[in-house]
Structures are given as C-alpha cells and as structure tokens.
Amino acid sequence: MIEGGQVYLRAWVDGVQRHAPGSGQARSWVDMPAWERASTTAVYEMVRAFVEAGGTDRLSRVQKGQFVHLCWLAQVHKHLDSPTTADWASLPTWHQETNTDIFDHIEDLILGRH
C-alpha cells in the first residue's frame, strides 16, 4: 500500500520533472532521510484534511501552493534545529509550481478526479 508521503513524493517528482528538468531535485522514497519521509506524510495528511473539509475548489492556484509550502515549513522547523527556509516569494517559480501541483494532485485523488 502506498503511504500518503509517497503520494506527495510522486507529485513532487512529477512537478520537478515538469517545471525544473535536470535540476537534481527529484529523489526516491528509500533515499530520503526518515524526517523527510515523516514530513511528506504529515503534509499529505494536512492537505487531505483540508480538501476533505471542503471549499478548496475556491482557492487560487497560488493559495494552494502556499498552503503546501507553509505545511512543509512547519515540518522543517519541527524536525531540524537550525532550518534554512525561504518565504513563498523567494522560491523559484519551478518550486512554487511544484508545490501547487502537489496540492492539485492530492486534491484530485481525494475528490476522485484521478
């Protein structure tokens, strides 16, 4: 059975390949440290809960990406002592687009559009 974190990772890899091919940002589940696997699972669960609560169809694409980014930042601060983080506006466009794709992918799965 595929874990929520693996769904998140698949969407990340697909987004990186679409928006930043050759960037070296794509990873495999087994190569990720435990904290990153836990973090991808936690972010998946937060997006899933948000989608199930309803109303996400009224969010803009940017708002969806920002939600993923904020959830990820919370996980980074939870797991790392001195994290290096970036504001949404400082992220490269490919990263913003990939975060939005992650939300869309999870939303589509939860709502049965995939």
Would you kindly provide a brief summary of this structure?
Helix content is 64%, strand content 0%. It has helices spanning 4-19, 34-53, 61-79, 93-110.
Could you describe the largest sheet, including whether it forms a barrel?
A: none
Strand content: under 5%
Report the strand count.
0
Distance between the termini: 17 Å
* Annotation field: number of helices: 4
Mean pLDDT across every amino acid position: 93
What is the radius of gyration computed over CA atoms, rounded to a whole number of angstroms? 13 Å
Q: Low-confidence spans: pLDDT under 50, at least 5 residues?
A: none
Structural class: mainly alpha
Q: Helix fraction? A: 55-70%
Overall body shape: globular
The run of helices and strands is: HHHH
Give your account of this protein's structure.
- The chain is mainly alpha-helical.
- The protein contains 4 helices and no strands.
- The chain has helices spanning 4-19, 34-53, 61-79, 93-110.
- Helix 1 (4-19) packs across helix 2 and helix 2 runs antiparallel to helix 3 (61-79).
- The two termini are 17 Å apart.
- The relative contact order is 0.20.
List the helices and strands and how they pair.
Elements: H1 4-19, H2 34-53, H3 61-79, H4 93-110
Helix pairs in contact: 1-2, 1-4, 2-3, 2-4, 3-4
Keywords, please?
single chain, 114 residues, mainly alpha, 4 helices, 64% helix, 0% strand
